[in-house]
Amino acid sequence: MGLFSKPKHPYWVQHSHLFKDDEYSCSKCGCKVDWPKPVCPGCGSKMGASQDDANWVDEAEIMDILFGEDD
């Protein structure tokens, strides 16, 4: 499996945020949970490792635009 390839089995997608707790969504059904569980409560799939989607980078960019950069 390459650096950016997705696993063949369902996995948790970790959604990291700057100002709130992380959340996780199932790659198969999209069910959202507060922490990764061994089995998805939405579709019953046995879950593998989680992958980070790095949304916090977009949130940081928006904050930078709103409040200006430190030069």
Structural class: alpha+beta
The string of secondary-structure elements, in order, is EEEEH
- State the strand order across the main sheet: 3-2-1-4
Radius of gyration: 15 Å
Shape: elongated
- What are the segments in which pLDDT stays under 50 over at least 5 consecutive residues? none
Largest sheet: 4 strands, mixed
Q: How much β-strand is present in the residues?
A: 15-25%
The residue fraction in helices comes out at 10-25%
* Number of beta strands: 4
Quaternary class: single chain
Query: Can you count the helices?
Result: 1
Mean pLDDT: 80
Termini, distance in Å? 41 Å
Features:
alpha+beta; 4 strands; elongated; 1 helix; four-stranded mixed sheet; 71 residues
Overview of the structural elements:
Strand 2 (23-26) and strand 3 form a beta hairpin. The protein is elongated, with a radius of gyration of 15 Å. The model has no long low-confidence stretch (mean pLDDT 80). The chain has a 4-stranded mixed beta sheet, with no helix packed on it. The longest helix is centred in the C-terminal third of the chain and has 13 residues, at 55-67. It starts with 11 loop residues before the first strand and ends with a helix. Helices cover 18% and strands 17% of the residues. It has 1 helix and 4 strands; from the N terminus they run ββββα. By secondary structure, it is an alpha+beta fold.
